[in-house]
Design goal:
By secondary structure, the protein is mainly alpha-helical. It contains two helices and two strands. It has a two-stranded antiparallel sheet with strand order 1-2.
Length: 90
C-alpha cells in the first residue's frame, strides 16, 4: 500500500500491522510512519493548540479545489481584460 502523502510504500509496524496511519486532516487515506510523525501529528497538534476543530475534509483536497478556482478565475479575468482592451480600441 502506498502513502497518500509521499507516495512511498507504507511501512509494517512492529506488531505486524500493514495498513499505516490515518492521514486526515492532511490527506484522505493512509500514510507511512514518517509522514504521520512529521506531517499529520504536528498538523493535528496545531489545530488543537489553536483551539480549532480538526477539519473533516482533507487539506490536500481543499487546496486542490482552491487551485482550480484560482485557475478558472485567472482565465476569466484574462478574457474580461481582453474584451475590455478590445472595446477601448474601438
Amino acid at each position: 500500500m502506498k502513502c497518500s502523502i509521499c507516495k512511498s510504500e507504507i511501512d509494517v509496524q512492529a506488531n505486524g500491522f500493514t495498513e499505516g496511519h490515518d492521514a486526515m486532516p492532511l490527506s484522505k487515506g493512509r500514510c507511512c510512519t514518517k509522514c504521520n510523525d512529521t506531517e499529520v501529528i504536528p498538523l493535528r497538534m496545531a489545530f488543537v493548540h489553536m483551539g480549532r476543530p480538526i477539519p473533516s475534509t482533507a487539506l490536500k483536497d481543499v487546496l486542490k479545489e482552491q487551485r482550480k478556482a484560482k485557475a478558472l478565475a485567472k482565465v476569466s479575468l484574462k478574457a474580461i481584460t481582453k474584451e475590455v482592451n478590445e472595446r477601448k480600441k474601438k
